[in-house]
C-alpha cells in the first residue's frame, strides 16, 4: 500500500520553514533596534544631565552608538559562529554515520517517524523514500533539527545586529542635539514612541499580546533614562574635572 502524499514533507512545508527563519531574523532586528534606542537614550540623557555642550553630547553619543553597535555585532558573530561550529560538527558526524552504517541509520530514521505517530510500515516507507531522495538532508532534519542548506552566516548576523542597533540609536541621538530647553523632554517622547513601536512589532511577530510588551519597553526605557539623567545631573553639578 502506497503512503498518502501528505505524509511526505511538501513544498509548502519548506516554504513555511523559510518564512519562520525570516520572521526570526525580523524579530531579532526589532530587538536589536530596541537595544539601540534604550542604550543610546540612556547614555545621551545622562550626558545631557551633566553638560549643556552640544559638542560633548554629540561626541559621547556617536562614540556610544558605534561602541554599542560594534559590541552587538561582535557578540552576535561569536554566538552564531559557536552555534554554526556545533551544527557543522553534528552534520559531519551524521554524514560519516550514513557512510559507515546506512542500514542502521535507515532503521533509526524509521523509528523517529514512528515516534511521530506513523505506523511501522508507513514510517519505513517514508524513511526509504526520503533516504532515496536525499539521505543526508532527511537525517539532518529528523535527527538533528538542522537544515544543511540554511545554516546561519555569522557575518550576516553581525551585520544585521550592527545595522539594527544603529537604526534604533539614531533617533534619540538626533533628538538629544536639540536646543537645551527641549532636548530632554523631546528625547524622552521620541524614545517612548520608538519603544511603543518596537514593543508592538516584536509582540506581533512573536504572536504575543502587544500591551505587556509595550508596557515593559516603555517602563524599562523610562527607568534607564531617569537613572542616567540623575547620575549625570549629580556629577555635572558636583564640580570636578
**Main sheet attributes: strand count, strand direction, barrel closure:** none
Shape: elongated
Q: How much of the sequence is in beta strands? A: under 5%
Report the strand count. 0
Order of helices and strands: HHHHHHH
Count helical runs.
7
Q: What is the radius of gyration computed over CA atoms, rounded to a whole number of angstroms?
A: 25 Å
Distance between the termini: 86 Å
Helicity, as a percent range: over 70%
Summarize the structure.
By secondary structure, this protein is mainly alpha-helical. It has helices spanning 11-50, 54-100, 102-115, 120-144, 154-175, 180-205, 210-236.
Write a structural description.
- The chain has one domain.
- The chain has seven helices and no strands.
- Helix 6 packs antiparallel against helix 7.
- The N terminus is likely disordered.
Write the layout of secondary structure elements.
Elements: H1 11-50, H2 54-100, H3 102-115, H4 120-144, H5 154-175, H6 180-205, H7 210-236
Helix pairs in contact: 1-2, 1-5, 1-6, 1-7, 2-3, 2-4, 2-5, 3-4, 5-6, 6-7
Amino acid at each position: 500500500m502506497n503512503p498518502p502524499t501528505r505524509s511526505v514533507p511538501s513544498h509548502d512545508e519548506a516554504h513555511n520553514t523559510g518564512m519562520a527563519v525570516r520572521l526570526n531574523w525580523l524579530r531579532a532586528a526589532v530587538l536589536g533596534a530596541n537595544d539601540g534606542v534604550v542604550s543610546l537614550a540612556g547614555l545621551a540623557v545622562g550626558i545631557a544631565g551633566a553638560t549643556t555642550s552640544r559638542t560633548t553630547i554629540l561626541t559621547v553619543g556617536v562614540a556610544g552608538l558605534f561602541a554599542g553597535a560594534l559590541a552587538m555585532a561582535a557578540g552576535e558573530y561569536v554566538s552564531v559562529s559557536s552555534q554554526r561550529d556545533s551544527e557543522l560538527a553534528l552534520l559531519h558526524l551524521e554524514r560519516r554515520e550514513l557512510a559507515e552504517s546506512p542500514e542502521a541509520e535507515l532503521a533509526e530514521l524509521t523509528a523517529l517517524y514512528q515516534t511521530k505517530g506513523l505506523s511501522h510500515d508507513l514510517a519505513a516507507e517514508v524513511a526509504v523514500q526520503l533516504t532515496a531522495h536525499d539521505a543526508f538532508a532527511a537525517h539532518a532534519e529528523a535527527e538533528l533539527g538542522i537544515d544543511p542548506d540554511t545554516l546561519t552566516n555569522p557575518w550576516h548576523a553581525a551585520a544585521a545586529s550592527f545595522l539594527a542597533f544603529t537604526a534604533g540609536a539614531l533617533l534619540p541621538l538626533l533628538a538629544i542635539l536639540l536646543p537645551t530647553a527641549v532636548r530632554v523632554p523631546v528625547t524622552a517622547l521620541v524614545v517612548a514612541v520608538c519603544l511603543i513601536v518596537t514593543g508592538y512589532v516584536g509582540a506581533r511577530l512573536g504572536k504575543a499580546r502587544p500591551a505587556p510588551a509595550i508596557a515593559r519597553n516603555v517602563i524599562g526605557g523610562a527607568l534607564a533614562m531617569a537613572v542616567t539623567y540623575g547620575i549625570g545631573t549629580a556629577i555635572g553639578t558636583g564640580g570636578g574635572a
